[in-house]
C-alpha cells in the first residue's frame, strides 16, 4: 500500500479542488490519501463525491482530517488531526475562531508587504485564494505575480513571510496541549506535522513533544520534505522513545509547491495503528460513499 497522510486542496491553500486531489492521488498510484486542509473540513464533501464518482475497479481511501495552527512558547507549530467528528461543538468552535482570524491576519500581512514596497493588494490575494481560507501561500503567490520574489518558497524568508519575518503578523493559534485534547475529545487522532522543519523557523523542544505525548499525541510526521536524513533519524528515535507513531507524507499543495503527491509515505502498519485509535469519523472509501 502507498499511503500519503498530508495533502491540501483549494479549501485552504492548495491549488487542486478536492475532486482534482482525488484524481491526482489515483494517478500517483496511492491507495490512501489524507485531506488535511488548514483549520477547515470544507473539502471533505467534495472528496466524498469524487470517490463516489471513481470508475468501477478504481480504489482509493480518503482519510478526512485537518491541519491545526498552534503555538507554544512563542513558536508556531501545526497539528494534523485525523478522523475526528467535525460536528463536535468545542473543536468546531476552535477551528472557526482560527479561520476567522486568518482574514484579519491576511489583511495585516498584505498591508505590511505594501509598506515594504510590494505592489500587491488584498483583492488580489482573495482572487488567488478563491473560496479557500486565506493563508500565507496565497500572499506568497501574490508576491510572485508582482515580481517581488521568483517562487512561493522564496517568499518564506525573514525578508517577507517567514515566522517572525518583516511582514509576518501573529494570528490566533491554539495551545497544542489543548488542541490534542480537543482532537481526542472529538474522537480524532493527533499527529505533530513536520516537527523538525527548521527552514520554516524555530521548532519546539523534545520536552514539548514529550508533554504532548503525555497529553495524548499519537504520532510524529517523520518523513517529510522539510526534514533531512539526520532529522528523520532523530525524530524516529524520539517517536520510539515516547511510544508514538512515525508517519510520512508529502504535504502536497498542488502546483503552489514543487513537492509531489506521494513523495513520502506512511508504513501500512502505522496507518492501521492510527485507524485503530479513531472513533470520530470513518474513512471515505467505496463502502462509506455507497459505491
UniProtKB/TrEMBL annotation:
Give one Pfam family, short name only. Answer: PHP
Q: Which residues form the Polymerase/histidinol phosphatase N-terminal domain?
A: 3-72
GO molecular function terms noted in the UniProt entry:
5'-3' DNA exonuclease activity; 5'-3' RNA exonuclease activity
UniProt-listed PANTHER family: EXONUCLEASE, POLYMERASE_HISTIDINOL PHOSPHATASE N-TERMINAL DOMAIN-CONTAINING PROTEIN
Protein's UniProt name: PHP domain-containing protein
Which organism's genome codes for this protein?
A: Streptomyces sp. Y1
Amino acid at each position: 500500500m502507498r499511503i500519503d497522510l498530508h495533502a491540501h486542496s483549494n479549501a485552504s491553500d492548495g491549488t487542486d479542488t478536492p475532486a482534482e486531489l482525488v484524481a491526482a492521488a489515483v494517478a500517483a498510484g496511492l491507495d490512501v490519501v489524507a485531506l488535511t486542509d488548514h483549520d477547515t473540513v470544507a473539502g471533505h464533501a467534495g472528496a466524498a463525491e469524487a470517490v463516489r464518482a471513481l470508475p468501477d475497479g478504481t480504489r482509493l481511501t480518503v482519510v478526512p482530517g485537518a491541519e491545526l495552527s498552534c503555538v507554544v512558547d512563542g513558536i508556531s507549530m501545526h497539528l494534523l488531526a485525523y478522523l475526528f467528528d467535525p460536528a463536535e461543538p468545542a473543536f468546531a468552535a476552535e477551528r472557526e475562531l482560527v479561520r476567522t482570524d486568518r482574514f484579519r491576519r491576511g489583511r495585516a500581512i498584505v498591508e505590511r508587504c505594501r509598506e515594504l514596497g510590494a505592489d500587491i493588494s488584498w483583492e488580489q490575494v482573495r482572487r488567488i485564494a478563491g473560496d479557500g481560507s486565506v493563508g500565507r501561500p496565497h500572499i506568497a503567490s501574490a508576491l510572485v505575480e508582482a515580481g517581488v520574489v521568483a517562487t512561493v518558497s522564496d517568499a518564506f524568508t525573514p525578508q517577507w513571510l517567514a515566522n517572525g519575518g518583516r511582514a509576518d503578523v501573529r494570528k490566533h493559534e491554539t495551545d497544542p496541549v489543548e488542541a490534542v485534547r480537543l482532537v481526542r475529545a472529538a474522537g480524532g487522532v493527533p499527529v505533530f506535522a513536520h516537527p523538525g522543519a527548521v527552514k520554516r523557523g524555530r521548532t519546539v523542544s523534545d520536552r514539548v513533544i514529550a508533554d504532548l505525548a503525555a497529553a495524548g499525541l499519537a504520532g510524529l510526521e517523520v518523513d517529510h520534505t522539510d526534514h533531512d536524513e539526520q532529522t528523520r533519524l532523530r525524530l524516529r528515535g524520539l517517536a520510539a522513545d515516547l511510544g508514538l507513531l512515525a508517519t510520512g507524507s508529502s504535504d502536497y499543495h498542488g502546483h503552489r509547491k514543487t513537492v509531489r503527491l506521494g513523495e513520502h509515505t506512511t508504513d501500512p502498519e502505522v496507518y492501521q495503528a492510527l485507524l485503530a485509535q479513531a472513533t470520530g469519523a470513518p474513512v471515505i472509501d467505496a463502502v462509506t460513499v455507497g459505491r
